[in-house]
Amino acid sequence: MANTATNLTTNKHLLAWVGEMAELCQPDAVVWCDGSEDERKRLTEFAVSKGILIPLNAEKHPGCYLHRSNPNDVARVEHLTFICTKTKEEAGPTNNWMAPDEAYGKLRGLFKGSMAGRTMYVVPYVMGPLGSQHSKVGIELTDSVYVALNMRIMTRMGKGALDMLGDGNGFNRGLHCTGDLNPERRYICHFPQDNAIWSFGSGYGGNALLGKKCLALRIGSYLGKKEGWLAEHMLILGVESPEGQTTYVAAAFPSACGKTNFAMMIPPKRFKGWKVYTVGDDIAWLRVGDDGRLWAVNPENGYFGVAPGTDWASNPNAMKTIAKDTLFTNVAVTKDGQVWWESMDGNTHDELTDWQGKPWKKGSPDKAAHPNSRFTAPATNNPILSRNVNDPEGVPISAIIFGGRRSDTVPLVMQAFNWGHGVFMGATIGSETTAAATGKVGVVRRDPMAMLPFCGYNMGDYFAHWLEMQKKVSNPPKIFLVNWFRKKDGKFLWPGYGENMRVLKWIVDRAHVRVGAQETPLGWVPKEGHIDLSGLSISPEQVDAATNIDVDEWKKELESTSEFFQQFGDRLPKALELQRQLLLARLA
Ligand code: GTP
Ligand code: SPV
Ligand code: MN
């Protein structure tokens, strides 16, 4: 079997493990990725020759390619995602659980000989800045050249990772095989106690790019609990005032609920002199600094962003970010090889090729791009990339924002009274399901801290961990709840996108204790006139509706929270149930 390892590493743990996995999967060749430009070209050419990548219009999209997934493999599969801890209790009631022996046994059967006739790519990568003591090294073994090329964009991939690992044994062991894409043989298994991930039968995003949700969140959250930090589904942004003061904010919204857009926002004209910088758009690792503040690092190196809804009006910075060297997955293409999705330039094309490669005509009831079609773009393409993205200690966080996609109940913005109340807010956010995961779309479910699909251990313990962090964070960020998605008569009440700056400005002012607030039973809200609405063409009634707190709706909300809490039994921290009772009492 051809093997290109020798010139890259002499790490005996790594070589032994790769050898063992190659023995199991029986690939024709083992190719070690070094992350070089040369390698990118070679892998891309190979992918193009096999039809795995389709070149796009080289003039309009230099260095960009399209990939079409198998139509049954276009989103995360939460029902096929498992946390394989020794006991079911450790995985908790919100995760699927399989005993490690059973999972290894079942998957070993699937992996056995699964790479015959194929190449096994050894993808060394780092989550977090190279050389940072907080970063984690992972090795993903995959038979997918698409995965290897995506990991090259999304992580610090290649020789740098092997250098950082040195002779160490503390790397995440990730094994991925595309298999025959039969959903009956699809398993995304996490072994937090072994720092290992085995993923079989999917080539899609969060199922297959193991550094992202699998390592940086599921395994990451488990390590965070053990080591005293937090791995969160949060964007990180810096907002600079006209006076030059930069405030860093982290925000958790569930999948396809606005993180990338918020992280890349352009403040409206009214906010002259205000600037937003992106640190991250999906994942934050939060640690307590020596100064007692919470410091955030983005472990990723690129964006795996939702395409539909991304356009020159909603997110010009994302459009600039995807202008070159970007991989597109499951978008539509125009006759002349340009990418297209719903929301882009009106609907001016009479004919397109849809995400499945089929002809599409204007007026067709089917979407041309898949609702969960995505772009994979390097962070360095982002015109507003923060200059602190590679800082090994990260950036200090002044505000944490929780949000969801809610047509009703939840007002535009609210501030928690204190850390414990803020943790309650985060732990109880509800959100309508989206196309980011398979299953029904638009159903409200509790999605604590936007981590329901990503917490690698018992969520009751996770809540306790959040509450315990208070003891260590002597200078904690303020905590907020937002909702950009409230509707009336089926239409969004709040214009969203860049206009969210108006809410962010209030949050920043509150974080610096520069502005007052109005107390309600549920939290603090902006006083009349404190959210700057000038230059915004929405009626006062619309603003009222977007910010309204309806007592009856909130009673229902707090009751449904009780149901959600019950499943955790005595692993639910008493402080959370107390918060609920307190709020109910205040409402009465
Ligand atoms: P993941 O990558 O799945 O974690 O998603 P995300 O949280 O980064 O969401 P993203 O920013 O990609 O937005 C998802 C969808 O919501 C897109 O179709 C956006 O156009 C839409 N969206 C984002 N922000 C807003 C907003 O402020 N208002 C409204 N109405 N829609 C928004
Ligand atoms: C999400 O679903 O939250 C994503 C996309 O960011 S995936 O990488 O598929 O998890
Ligand atoms: Mn996400």
Features of the shown structure:
588 residues, alpha/beta, Phosphoenolpyruvate Carboxykinase, domain 1, Phosphoenolpyruvate Carboxykinase, domain 3, Phosphoenolpyruvate Carboxykinase, domain 2, 3 domains, ten-stranded mixed sheet, nine-stranded mixed sheet, 28% helix, 23% strand, binds guanosine-5'-triphosphate, binds sulfopyruvate, binds manganese (II) ion
Structure description:
It is a single chain. This protein is an alpha/beta fold. The protein folds into 3 domains: 205 residues, Phosphoenolpyruvate Carboxykinase, domain 1 (3-Layer(aba) Sandwich), CATH 3.40.449; 273 residues, Phosphoenolpyruvate Carboxykinase, domain 3, CATH 3.90.228.20; 79 residues, Phosphoenolpyruvate Carboxykinase, domain 2 (Beta Complex). 28% of the residues lie in helices and 23% in strands. The chain is built from 16 helices and 34 strands. Strands 1, 2, 5, 6, 7, 8, 9, 10, 11 and 12 form a 10-stranded mixed β-sheet that branches. Strand 1, helix 1 and strand 2 form a beta-alpha-beta unit. Helix 2 packs antiparallel against helix 5. The radius of gyration is 23 Å and the shape is globular. The model has no long low-confidence stretch (mean pLDDT 97). The chain binds guanosine-5'-triphosphate, sulfopyruvate (SPV) and manganese (II) ion (MN). Manganese (II) ion binds next to loops.
